[in-house]
Amino acid sequence: MAFEYQEDHMRNSRGTLLFTCRWLPLISSPKALVFLCHGYGMECSGFMRECGTRLAAAGYAVFGIDYEGHGRSKGARCYIKKFGNIVNDCSNFFKTICAQEEYRDKSRFLYGESMGGAVALLLHKKDPSFWNGAVLVAPMCKISEKVKPHPVVVNILTKMEEIIPKWKIVPTKDVIDSAFKDPIKREVIRNNKLIYQDKPRLKTALEMLRTSISLEDGLNEVILPFFVLHGEADIVTDPEVSKALYEKASSKDKTIKLYPGMWHGLTSGEPDENIEIVFADITAWLDKRCNAVTFEQILRPSNQGFEKFDNVMVSMAATSSRTQSNGTYLCGLKRPRTQRRSAM
């Protein structure tokens, strides 16, 4: 299906100019609206282009925004002064789209990857009845018990955050080598100058940590329909975290799928045949739900969380055969395969 790509800008409540983009199917009316929440250091127009084009080709109107300091948006590079600012900016932009006359009767879905999964869950928490569902790809939504930073370390860093908030604290650079399996795709991502590949800043790291803790404490408050996807060989965010979300969420329509042997970058770093499988699963899940008329209808049980796809039965019994890393962790994100790289 043919689609049109558009770019625009908006100013947030703090006066910062933010980049926005959209992929619109060239049909009379899209199936539903999908709103992209990208990961830490990432951006929408390049890194998430594959997602936008595939979903638009499947008949969905797709909208993205680069967070303040990310991608083509203005602001200190990858500096998150307050995580709530990201959530509020996304909420304002997404709801402006939803209020447009041609979209008022359309179902509304969130799509979050990695840290964007946290953004999506917080958008749901901000207005629980507004969203019709969410696709969460390797989300950052809980800190594994195995990897929580020591309280003493957190206390020391907290005392420093107002003095040197933009200090680049983590002494490694990136997780590209650990997140993206396919070497060709990995180099394309590394050469994307819009992607932040420097050390995380002090306040940014603490904001991500606090957000993870807050989400972990409120996983049972999640009530929207969701589909969480995770690679079993992901050592950037822990598949156990997605299992915890699935187990604790109060949603009556919830589905999880674990992909044996796949890494963190399910939609952008795997071989082509794996990416085809992932997007087929995502569009199948959306297609089944995009015609929901009301929030109550979409909350009806869906086979108790087990959903039959063409190639696998989703099951919480799936287990990983990978070897666990012995690295250190921060903000719920694991230390990557090479010790030179950042855990962010």
UniProtKB/TrEMBL annotation:
InterPro entries: AB_hydrolase_1, AB_hydrolase_fold, Hydrolase_4, MAG_DAG_Lipase
Record-linked Pfam families: Hydrolase_4
Name under which the protein is recorded: Serine aminopeptidase S33 domain-containing protein
Species: Gossypium raimondii
PANTHER family on file: PHOSPHOLIPASE-RELATED (PTHR11614)
Serine aminopeptidase S33 domain segment(s): 29-271
Gene3D superfamilies referenced in this protein's UniProt entry, alphabetically: alpha/beta hydrolase (3.40.50.1820)
